[in-house]
Amino acid sequence: MARPDGHLTNRRHSPATVPPTVATDRPLALVRGRNPIVGLVTYDPSMPSFRLRMAAMRPLMERSGIEVRTVALGRGHEWLRVIRLASELRSCDLLIFQQVKLLAGERVYVDRLCGSWIFDVDDAIMFRRPRRPRETPSQAGWRRRRLRRMAERCQIAVAGSRSLAGMIGPEARRIEVLHTPVDLAAYPLAALPRRERVRLAWIGLASNLCYLESLEPVLRRLHSDGVDFELRVISDRLPQMNGIPCVHVPWSASGEGTALASCDVGLAPLADDLWTRGKAGYRCIQYAAAGLPAVASPVGANREVVFDGETGIWAGSHDEWHSALLRLCSDAHLRELLGTAARLRASRFELSYYGRRYIRLISSTIGLRRQSVR
C-alpha cells in the first residue's frame, strides 16, 4: 500500500525510476545534542558489496552531519563477535547491516544495545552460491530463516534490485529498492569509433568468469563467421576459452572506468537460477555508466538495468546471443544509439542520488525510533 510520502510497505517496493532530486544535503537533526552516529556493520569491509554500497556514500553521509563508524564483525566466532563489539554497537543511533545475518541470540543482544536497524542486501544470501552455472543453489532452511528474521526485525530492508526485493517477500516491514550506485565522474564516456576490430568487454570478479565462459560456443561461432573482434576481460585473470581472442586488462578501482571506455559492447551473461535472480546487475550499471550498449541475459536485475532495444539487447539462448553480437559488431551506428541511451539512463544509478535517498531512509528510521521510545 502506498503511503502519502510515496514509500511502499508490505509486499511492494519502491519503483526503479524516480524523480532526479529527492533530498537536500541539509544536516540531520541532532540526537541527544550531538550528530547522529550510524554504524555500518559488515563481515569484511573489503568486500565489493560493502565498498560499493556503504563505503562509497560515507563522504555524503558525513557532509549531512552523520558520524559514520565501520563495524567489522569478521567471520566465525558467532556470539563472541557481538560481545567483543558491544561498546561500539551501543554508541550508535542506527545500525546498517550490510549482507549480515545475525543469530537469534545475537539479534536479541544487539537490539538491547541499539534498536534502530536497516538491512541492506544486494545478493540472494538466503541461498548458497552454486559452484557452477545452472547448478541448483543450496536452499538450506537455516539460511532462509536467518534472512527472514533479519528482515522482520529491521525497520527497513534495502534491496539492490526489484527482483531481490520480491525474493525477500512480505517478511520485511518495509522494502526499498536502491540499485548499487556508480560515480559517473569516474566513468569517461566511450567514444565508440568505427573500427575494424570491435572490442567486447566483460568486467567482474574471477569467481564470475564461469558465466562468461558459457559464451565460448557463441564467440567461436562469431569468430568462424569472420567477425573481427577481441574480448577485453577486466578482471584478475582470463577465462578458460580456447581459440577466442582475449586481452587481459587487470582490474583496479581507479582504472575500471577508463578500461570500459576503450571498449564498444558490454557482455553480461548469466545462468537463470535462484542465485542469479537475486544479483544486483552492477556489471550492466557499469556498462551504462561508460555509455556502452550491453548484451545481457534477461535474468533478475539485468532486466531492470538493460532496456531491450533501447540501451542494449536481451539474449537468452546461444542463437540469440550470436544474433545480438552479430548485429552490434556490424553496425557502429546502432552501438552509438544504444550507448547514448544507456548513459542517459545511468543517471538513475548516480552515487550522489543514491546517497541522498539513503540518507532520507536513515533520517526517517532514527526519527521513528525516537517516537517509539518516548
Q: How many distinct folded domains?
A: 2
The CATH homologous superfamily of the largest domain: Glycogen Phosphorylase B
Secondary-structure element pattern, one letter each: EHHEHHEHEHEHEEHHEEHEHEHEHHH
- The structure class reads alpha/beta
Total helical elements: 15
**What is the rounded Rg?**
21 Å
Number of strands: 12
Taking the sheet with the most strands, its summary is: 6 strands, parallel
Q: Characteristics of this structure?
A:
374 residues, alpha/beta, Rossmann fold, 6-stranded parallel beta sheet, 12 strands, 36% helix, elongated
Structural commentary:
The chain is an alpha/beta fold and 374 residues long. It folds into two domains: 168 residues, Glycogen Phosphorylase B (Rossmann fold); 166 residues, Rossmann fold (3-Layer(aba) Sandwich). The strands form two sheets. Strands 2-1-3-4-5-6 form a six-stranded parallel beta sheet, sandwiched between helices. Strands 9-8-7-10-11-12 form a six-stranded parallel beta sheet, sandwiched between helices. Helix 9 crosses helix 13. It is elongated.
